[in-house]
């Protein structure tokens, strides 16, 4: 049946205007003031914004990590995402050295199949480059539609790849039309500082932050930018947490390099002091890169505002406090890194960003959806409200207030890092390809409804002009 969203205010990355949206066969069929078919179900969006569904470019669902497995899988994770206004996730498919990429991708398909309630795609981790990997990459892009690769510059002896691997991945990505994503921290120096701290008897969560100083994120970010320049390729730096990394990204972009940056809600509103909470509660706030001193937050907000950083990912990587974070009670290096953020990504950016005048409404949509769709080969199917686009829509009431709490969130974990935080604005109903996933704040979706997204190659909406100046 057709659906007509009436009386809402449509917000895209470019416009804010009153119009009705007609949905037919899962797509946006018409937008206008006098769209009134007699056979459509009417959905009243009075007083609400109608946003394109959020796209989360950075999730780790059902991922083995730190001696355990993330608590949210593709079912609980995507349900929570939908409650938060996200209608697409791009998850990281891990690979193992010596194992065919196809096997890793199949494993990830099996994790998602029958579970996801919204659409999803995969990025592919590159842990080594050899003839086997190089021969598989064209298939990964052409047949699987996986057009972004991830290289870890940290997590020594676990995920970390060396600079040669990063450079060769950048070169291959340029040839094949893929975007290379990096976790930019200097893993070798962190490994040394960590061992030194433990040898001195420092086992508490705060030492996770103290052994990963922002200089090491800045250094790795700068190194990745230099290698991108050398390979004449393209780079997306995930979870940027500090001024030092922003500076390197801005410097590269000013040179005309094709470098993009993502930050995450936790770095915008939480700070390093949280790791010092008593009774081991600091473990709830262990991320890599770590939370930083508070002054970095304003640098990140300014970078989002002036376009030096372009996107917001959740880096959803959730572990229970009890039984999982607790693995590191006697040794901070054993605390599984990451947190539950997928549900509150949009709320925090809207409340702390738009409501507080740090970014505009259009920027909010660009940062959480449109730019991500453009960078990761999903635009204009996803990421905007336009005739022909998928009807992935969020009806968002900007005036309600709610308090974030583990008591009410939909993630499968036993704590929320933003517990007690008041946020303005809330998704009321969320549609994926024209079907309600959340209706009037109640889940009405179906596990298995979410479709796998084959993505287009990098570059269609991110073209450099002749002077190598960025044009979007
Ligand atoms: O602490 C984090 N960020 N955990 C998830 C894995 C990663 O590095 O992105
Ligand atoms: Zn990372
Ligand atoms: Zn991550």
From TrEMBL:
<feature type="modified residue" description="N6-carboxylysine">
    <location>
        <position position="150"/>
    </location>
</feature>
<dbReference type="InterPro" id="IPR050378">
    <property type="entry name" value="Metallo-dep_Hydrolases_sf"/>
</dbReference>
<keyword id="KW-0378">Hydrolase</keyword>
<dbReference type="InterPro" id="IPR011059">
    <property type="entry name" value="Metal-dep_hydrolase_composite"/>
</dbReference>
<dbReference type="InterPro" id="IPR032466">
    <property type="entry name" value="Metal_Hydrolase"/>
</dbReference>
<comment type="similarity">
    <text>Belongs to the metallo-dependent hydrolases superfamily. Hydantoinase/dihydropyrimidinase family.</text>
</comment>
<dbReference type="InterPro" id="IPR006680">
    <property type="entry name" value="Amidohydro-rel"/>
</dbReference>
<dbReference type="GO" id="GO:0046872">
    <property type="term" value="F:metal ion binding"/>
</dbReference>
<dbReference type="Pfam" id="PF01979">
    <property type="entry name" value="Amidohydro_1"/>
</dbReference>
<feature type="domain" description="Amidohydrolase-related">
    <location>
        <begin position="49"/>
        <end position="437"/>
    </location>
</feature>
<dbReference type="InterPro" id="IPR011778">
    <property type="entry name" value="Hydantoinase/dihydroPyrase"/>
</dbReference>
<protein>
    <submittedName>
        <fullName>Dihydropyrimidinase</fullName>
        <ecNumber>3.5.2.2</ecNumber>
    </submittedName>
</protein>
<dbReference type="GO" id="GO:0004157">
    <property type="term" value="F:dihydropyrimidinase activity"/>
</dbReference>
<keyword id="KW-0479">Metal-binding</keyword>
């Amino acid at each position: 049946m057709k659906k007509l969203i009436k009386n809402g205010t449509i917000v895209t990355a470019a416009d804010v205007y009153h119009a009705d949206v007609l949905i037919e066969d899962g797509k946006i069929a018409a937008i206008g003031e006098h769209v009134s078919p007699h056979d459509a179900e009417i959905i009243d969006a009075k007083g609400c914004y109608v946003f394109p569904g959020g796209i989360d470019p950075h999730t780790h669902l059902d991922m083995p990590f730190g001696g355990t497995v993330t608590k949210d899988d593709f079912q609980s994770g995507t349900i929570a995402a939908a409650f938060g206004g996200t209608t697409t996730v791009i998850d990281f498919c891990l690979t193992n050295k010596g194992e065919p990429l196809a096997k890793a991708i199949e494993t990830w398909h099996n994790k998602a199949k029958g579970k996801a309630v919204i659409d999803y795609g995969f990025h592919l981790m590159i842990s080594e480059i050899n003839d086997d990997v190089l021969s598989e990459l064209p298939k990964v892009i052409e047949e699987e539609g996986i057009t972004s690769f991830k290289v870890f510059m940290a997590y020594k002896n676990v995920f970390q790849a060396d600079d040669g691997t990063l450079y060769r991945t950048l070169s291959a990505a340029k040839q094949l039309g893929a975007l290379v994503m990096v976790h930019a921290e200097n893993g070798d120096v962190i490994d040394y500082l960590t061992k030194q701290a433990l040898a001195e008897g420092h086992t508490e969560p705060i030492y996770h932050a103290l052994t990963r100083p922002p200089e090491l994120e800045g250094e790795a970010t700068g190194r990745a930018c230099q290698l991108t320049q050398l390979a004449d390729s393209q780079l997306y730096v995930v979870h940027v947490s500090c001024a030092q990394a922003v500076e390197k990204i801005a410097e590269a972009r000013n040179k005309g390099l094709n470098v993009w940056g993502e930050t995450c809600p936790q770095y915008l509103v939480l700070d390093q002091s949280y790791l010092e909470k008593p009774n081991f509660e600091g473990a709830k706030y262990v991320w890599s890169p770590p939370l930083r001193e508070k002054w970095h937050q304003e640098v990140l907000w300014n970078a989002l505002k002036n376009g030096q950083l372009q996107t917001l990912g959740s880096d959803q990587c959730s572990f229970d406090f009890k039984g999982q974070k607790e693995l590191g009670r006697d040794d901070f290096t054993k605390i599984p890194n990451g947190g539950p953020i997928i549900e509150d990504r949009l709320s925090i950016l809207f409340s702390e960003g738009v409501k507080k005048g740090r970014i505009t409404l259009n920027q909010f949509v660009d940062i959480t959806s449109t730019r991500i769709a453009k960078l990761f080969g999903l635009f204009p199917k996803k990421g905007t409200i336009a005739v022909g686009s998928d009807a992935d829509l969020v009806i968002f009431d900007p005036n309600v207030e709610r308090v974030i709490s583990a008591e009410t969130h939909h993630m499968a974990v036993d704590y929320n890092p933003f517990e007690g935080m008041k946020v303005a604005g809330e998704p009321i109903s969320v549609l994926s390809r024209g079907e309600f996933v959340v209706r009037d704040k109640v889940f009405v979706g179906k596990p298995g409804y979410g479709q796998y997204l084959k993505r287009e190659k990098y570059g269609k909406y991110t073209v450099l002009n002749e002077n190598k100046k960025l044009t979007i």
